[in-house]
Amino acid sequence: MDRRTFISGGAVAAATVATACGETGQDTSGAPAAPNINRGVTRLRMVTTWPANFPGLGTAANNVANYINRMSGGSLEVRVYAAGEIVSAFEAFDAVSEGTADMYHGAEYYWQGKSPAFNFFTAVPMGMTAYEIMGWVEAGGGQALWDELSAGFNIKPFQAGNSGHQMGGWFKREINTLEDFRGLRMRIPGLGGNVLRELGGAAVTLSGGEIYPALQSGAIDGTEWVGPWNDLAFGFYREAPYYYGPGFHEPGSCLGVGINKTVWDGLASDHQAIIASACRTANNISIAEFQYQNGIALDVLVNEHGVELRQFSDEIWTRIGTIAEQVVADTGNADPFTRRVYDSYLAARDSMRSWGRISEMPYMVQRERVLDR
Question: So where does substrate get bound (predicted)?
């Protein structure tokens, strides 16, 4: 299927509905037999921002589609198109908004050019962890704001994956001081890129499939991507030996599904419930997979490929924290609606920080102390 064939229909045409009804007969007693009615099948096209079947990201999109297909008993059929198969990664939002596709799976900060508020529904520097952003969206008012934001672009959004805490990146040279960031060409999207620019570096936005060639050719000096599981799959260790973590830019990156709102509003209520449930299930599975697989992959990177693990210095962290606070504030105050999202985000983050400060943080410190003794 080529691009022209794919985009020739509008939103309603893209969600193809086929209905078949059998005839009502009679059994041998003369009583009417049960009608043989097959419910109509609604077919939806999902475009993604990921390479086909890519571990954790591409497979999260596949999971959403599979859960929808199975939970609906086949009355909903979702077909997944990877980045570049129909539209490029960064065209996915417009394809769904305009109705040339029905759904996308991607990272919301890719759409920051539409509204800076989208950043808060993926990740911001020094922002929420995976569990915290789940808490805000599910229980702290974030979903209502996300719905309002996306509705302006004819889209209904859902959480549908989370990569957990991301690493700080792969570098061809050591990053020991703030001076080492000057002139550094690094693939880093979203507001993390703004922080890098303030540090004197050059932030480059590339889709997943473009990163390795750019690193290999020397077009970039370093890259962040996700974490050990995904980074191992891309083989970045072959081009950049220094692996820094943790990352400051994406402490818990929410992945989203966006559905064309015209299509969404036209679905039966049970189909809407199935899609919402499928996205929630995919989100939970994604967090579990990343948590487990990152540990497995890290062992491979260090013990089989000799990757050097590094951490940014306290001096670097302090400077990043100061810059990040201003970058996020500038973004949050960009316009009245984004300010509403920003205020809600900060209130939720600060509330959960107070709990994390006396729960997970001291527990993890003590667990490591006891297990490492």
Answer: 166, 187, 224, 250
